[in-house]
Design goal:
The complex is a heterodimer of chains A (303) and B (257). Chain A has 303 residues and is an alpha/beta fold. Chain A contains 8 helices and 18 strands. In chain A, the strands form 4 sheets. Chain A has a 7-stranded parallel sheet with strand order 7-11-6-1-4-5-12, with helices on both faces. A 5-stranded parallel sheet of chain A has the order 15-14-16-17-18. Chain A has a 3-stranded antiparallel sheet with strand order 8-9-10, with no helix packed on it. The radius of gyration of chain B is 21 Å and the shape is globular. The mean pLDDT of chain B is 96. Classes of the chains: A alpha/beta (303), B alpha/beta (257). Bound molecules: flavin-adenine dinucleotide and adenosine monophosphate (AMP). Adenosine monophosphate binds at residues 6-8, 36, 38-39, 42, 61-64, 91, 96, 99, 117-118, 120-121, 124-130 of chain B.
Chain lengths: 303, 257
Amino acid sequence: MKALLVAESRQGKLLASSYESLAFAGKLGAETAMFLVGNDADLPKYDGKLYLADVTAAGEYNPEEHLRLLLEVVGTENPELIVFGHTSYGWDLAPRLAMALKAGQVSEVVDWKDGSFVVPACNSKLRRTVKVDGVTVVTLQSGAFSLAGPPSGSPQVEKLAANGATKLEFLGYEEAEKGGVDLSKAGVIVSAGRGIGKPENLAIVEALAKALGGEFGASRPVVDSGWTEHNRQVGSTGQTVAPKLYVACGISGAIQHLAGMKKSEFVVAINTDKDAPIGEVADVLVVADLKQFIPALTAKLAK
Amino acid sequence: MKILVCIKQVPDMESRFKLNPAGTWYNDQDLAWRMNEYDEFAVEQAVQLREKTGDGELVVLSIGPERVKEAMKKALAMGADRGVHILDAASHEKDPFQIASAIAAWAGDQGFDAVFTGMQSQDRGSAQVGLLLAGMLGLPAVTTIVGFENDGSAVTVRRELEGGLKSIVKVPLPALFTCQLGLNTPRYPTLPNIMKAKKKELVSLPIADLLSAAPLVTTTATAFPEKKGGGLVLEGDVADLADKLLAILKEKTAVLK
Ligand SMILES: Cc1cc2nc3c(=O)[nH]c(=O)nc-3n(C[C@H](O)[C@H](O)[C@H](O)COP(=O)(O)OP(=O)(O)OC[C@H]3O[C@@H](n4cnc5c(N)ncnc54)[C@H](O)[C@@H]3O)c2cc1C
Ligand SMILES: Nc1ncnc2c1ncn2[C@@H]1O[C@H](COP(=O)(O)O)[C@@H](O)[C@H]1O
């Protein structure tokens, strides 16, 4: 089998997640070639053929141009499998390619077994096994596949000519606001999720954080609702943290939340749903209503 | 301006799922259903655009069994003008390519200026239908938007990347947008608007009239994931639970002195 691996660069830098597709191809025993819109100065450590388009010519967010370049490479290489990361780049570009090739796409692959792909469903409560006939486009769940050791090698570069024409005009980046709390320095983080029910209940979580000598954090809906500021959001579109203790209160454990806290040393989850996926990463899952349990816990800590 | 918003009805993710007899998907009995969370943001954005531009119309479309009309009624109560229900009792067996094909077959010659979908569905989570539909309709598309500003013939969106970074992208209309959580604050339908929505047009069309495409992806099995970590699960009386947890924290972590 031949696989085309689509690497990714952001603000001119190659993303380390690009190597996850190499690990995946290794698992499948596939022959590989790589595609990157990036720059000469930051190439993947990879012993194989790399199709490289210059990012200053192609544009960093220009899916129409990236698609055109990809189709050119697919035409040359005729891969049976095209592999993306399930990232903001991959989930945007992969379906465009699948559409153009009329190929089946499998999103957020976490495993590969006997020629079938395994993907999560229903917030990871279920796993679906899927099959595709013919050319297949996949996106890989971030972190699901990793190389055994550090990447090495240097690619044979094949340059692609880019012209950057598009209907979508990329006007620039907007960075997240800086300042405020720095969760990455906290030894203990107690995070509030949608399970707190209403903004007033954030105080319950804050009180526990204080009693434990830590900071409070939040899942995305709590931030999106404006109950607290974005710099307290833990997850793939917020902060990545690794405290000694992480307490997830009323948080279901969506993959994007886990991405920000799964390296914590010890994880406690408080949830009314015994099946909540947060249980997968929790050292202790307390099945209880946080509105009753947390005040009881905080009171005992105060003694 | 003519606007289309596509919505999916999904089960509440806090449900205790069971498998269907074929073992290919969840059993759809005894579940609480709601509008896909991402689609609520899509509906809200579509309604805001509709309100801003004044004339024109906002159509809400959903494919699925009879019950999906409940989610459509919510969209009508939020401000959509009329609903097109594509009746398909087996919509869970359709792959994203087929769902998009059916929508495109209906929407193809209607001349929509703006199409909104969710970034992904909560149950299937393929994040494909929007872009496939854009491809079929020949529209430019931007995914994962968290900001939307319409200035006449073009729209400037903020597209969310990882770690809080966003990119700013300008797109000419007509175009398709896939909506991310936090794009806006979806309104709660008011009682008068719920009453008004009951009188709005909601037609059903059979899927067979619109779909001939075969699936590209087939689900062979659905299962519960194997429990990997197997952390400790504590249940029972709240005061006991607190004592137990404190004892564990004292033993296993260095945070309690
Ligand atoms: C591209 C992308 C990026 C994202 N980035 C992030 C991110 O950075 N961070 C993030 O957090 N999310 C992110 N998300 C959203 C993520 O997918 C989930 O939607 C989100 O994490 C859910 O938050 P939650 O767990 O608080 O809410 P829910 O999933 O609604 O879970 C609420 C939980 O509370 C429990 N509960 C309810 N009542 C109680 C009670 N009384 N006591 C105890 N428990 C209770 C429920 O059982 C449930 O498990 C992202 C999504 C996408 C698509
Ligand atoms: N059955 C459906 N009917 C109407 N729209 C749908 C349907 N399934 C998916 N969509 C739309 O496509 C988006 C992405 O879904 P998915 O590709 O399944 O993750 C959803 O947020 C909806 O806007």
